[in-house]
Amino acid sequence: MPSEPLKLDSIDIKILNALQANARISNAELSERVNLSQTPCLRRLRKLEQSGLIQQYSARLDHGMLGINVSAFVFVKLSKNTSSNAAEFESAIELLPEVLECCVLAGVHDYVLRIATQNLQTFESFLKDKLANVDQVEDIESTIILNQTMTHRSPKLSGN
Questions:
Q1: What CATH number labels 63-145?
Q2: Which candidate, 19, 59, 126, 149, has a CA 20 to 30 Å from the CA of 42?
C-alpha cells in the first residue's frame, strides 16, 4: 500500500529540487539557493531524510569507462504469475549483477529488467546461461539500447 504523501512547503520543494540537480551541494550553497539560513536549512534536510522521502544519495557512473558497452531492456514473462513465483524470481534476479533495475509490469510481460554487460557476447551469455535458467521464467524478449539521450532523473517538483 502506498504511503501517505508528505506535506511539503515551497522551501522543502526547493531543497528537493536542488538536491536532485546536485546531491553533493554544500549546506551553505543549499541554504543560499532556498533563501534560508544554514541551521534551519540543515534541520529541514535532516527531517526530509528521516521521513524516508530522501532514500539515498548516489553517484552516476560512466559505464563506457568501466567497459560496459551494452545496455538492454529485457521483458520477462513468468510461467505462473503467483506471489510465490514472483518472490522466487525477484530473489534470483537480485543475485545477477548485470541487472540494474527490475520493474513489475501490468500487461503482456510480467517484468522489465534493465541490463548492462561488457559486449554482445556477454549479453548473450547472460540471457542463455543465467536468465533463461531461472526456473520461473517462461519467455524472454530483449531490446538493445543503441543510445541513451537522457539520463535518469526525478520529476521536478512544484509547489501547490
A1: 3.30.70.920
A2: 59
